[in-house]
Design goal:
By secondary structure, the protein is mostly helical. It is built from 10 helices and no strands. The protein has 2 domains: about 90 residues, Orthogonal Bundle (Rna Polymerase Sigma Factor, Chain: A), CATH 1.10.1740; about 70 residues, Arc Repressor Mutant, subunit A, CATH 1.10.10.
Amino acid sequence: MQNKIIDENLVENVISGSIKHQKEFVGIAEKIIYGALSSFHQLDNSDRDDLLQNIFLKLFEKNKRRIKMWNKKAKFSTYLYMITTNHALDYLQSKYFRQRLVNDNDANPDLVKISQKKNESSKLIDKLTIDMSRKKLRPVEKQIVDLYYYDGYKEKEIAEKLKISINTVSSIKNRAIKKIRKDIMQEFWV
């Protein structure tokens, strides 16, 4: 099978109920979902399989409501990647997963600490994506990102430490995060 994509025509056929197209859709989507889940190194194969099943259940429940919610201006693979990322992050922040990390002798203490903080999903997303692409940053961007995400400094503290304005710190940090996200998206979709 060639590298097929999920296009508008395939989605319409899936929504209309075509079994043949649903099988094709599932085969393509499965590769995209596993690819997105592979960036979450905290998940084992059993976790990935469970998340894959849950994502498909979400996509097809309530008369394929999630599939119908796709904005046709974007690639379906990008939409599916975002659904997968959100599911994985929800799972990583779940009580079950946090408890498993605490019980696991090989647990990464930094990850346990991050997972135990409430209402920090955006920081968790940023931290996971940063790990994958931060090598391409300029030295000052990498330094600010490291101080903020890894060392836990606030922007004001970074500004004082580096003797630059807080606005500069914020601007450099946000620009670095955009670079990292762009790099991640290109890696997955090119």
